[in-house]
Amino acid sequence: MADAPSLEAFKARLDVALGSLVWWLVTLYIAGGLKLDDRCGPFQPSKKSLSGVVQHLRNGQLLREIYINKHKLLLNDWTAKQLYLETTGKSRTLQSALALLYTFLPDFDWKKINMRHQWSTIFCSGSCDCPMRNHYLEEEQRRQYSLRVKNSDLEKIYVDMAKIVGIPTRQLRASNPIDSLLCYFCHNVSFPCTKTGCIGMEHFKVIKRHQLEDERERQEKKLYFLYALLATHPLLNQTVNRLQRIAEGKKEEIFVLRSAHDVTLSPVLSALGITEARFPRFAARLVFELWQDGKRPKEHFIRILYNGADVTFQTSFCKDYYKRSSKPMCPLEKFVSFVKRDMFLVFNSTSYYDACRRRPL
């Protein structure tokens, strides 16, 4: 587990490396710089906190024990070609990636890191033009709004909190205050106080209760699921293509890291059919593993882990396989079929392009 010396060592290495990482700040369009901050600001964009860095240092150590020490995925003489690293333009996602890589990679070297910038939070790269994805997102947002305005307790809490922090209610509502409150709650820091009063646990409980109710209705209405299928197809398609290349014997990009957001991970979980997964917590991780059959080298399987738990057979494309097979993994071809074909069936389409433009009957 990462301890204080690990954190201090990482901070020292980061400070030394900043001079050679100036091009990242330009090339990656990093918002907010790379300074670490352990303070929670009321309803303001957050930087990566020291506690958050420790979480990712621990993630890196855990992944290193499994994939480096046990399975020898990367050796000490690893090269940049074996890695594919991508982050959004927020400083906290870059900081998260660097913290994880610092404890994951053998003989970590800043100069060997090539971090790519992804402008889209859903990592759609060159396949972002999808009108129906936007349509389903708008419908989902209308559903969220309808549920919110029906909750008189929630509105009272918003009004009270806005008075305390001294901003208009509409601004506080738009800032998604649960994110700010979670920063205080998860860091075991007292909620903020002003001359007008204090935000307290009663505010947090009402908002959290509404969030859980929203998650339940979201699964029932299926609008978010339809959005998720179209939003995540480009990312899942890239994942499938890379797994297929590795299965064919390619040795490049055998380790992929995408440092993203809850709004990236949540639709992926939904699209895969992992309905039991809760909204992503801080430092959540989703891992796709590719395995080769030792006796039949041409046969390949995948395993999917969410925060360390095996969720492979919670996916919509491998639930039935689990019932009739003793293997603890899912055939790669089932994942390929899901991404290349089955994701579009609910839209009565056979391709991503068509599904993005076909209006529901």
TrEMBL record:
<dbReference type="InterPro" id="IPR029033">
    <property type="entry name" value="His_PPase_superfam"/>
</dbReference>
<comment type="similarity">
    <text>Belongs to the histidine acid phosphatase family.</text>
</comment>
<keyword id="KW-0378">Hydrolase</keyword>
<protein>
    <recommendedName>
        <fullName>2-phosphoxylose phosphatase 1</fullName>
    </recommendedName>
</protein>
<dbReference type="InterPro" id="IPR050645">
    <property type="entry name" value="Histidine_acid_phosphatase"/>
</dbReference>
<dbReference type="GO" id="GO:0006024">
    <property type="term" value="P:glycosaminoglycan biosynthetic process"/>
</dbReference>
<dbReference type="GO" id="GO:0005794">
    <property type="term" value="C:Golgi apparatus"/>
</dbReference>
<dbReference type="Pfam" id="PF00328">
    <property type="entry name" value="His_Phos_2"/>
</dbReference>
<dbReference type="GO" id="GO:0016791">
    <property type="term" value="F:phosphatase activity"/>
</dbReference>
<dbReference type="GO" id="GO:0050650">
    <property type="term" value="P:chondroitin sulfate proteoglycan biosynthetic process"/>
</dbReference>
<dbReference type="InterPro" id="IPR000560">
    <property type="entry name" value="His_Pase_clade-2"/>
</dbReference>
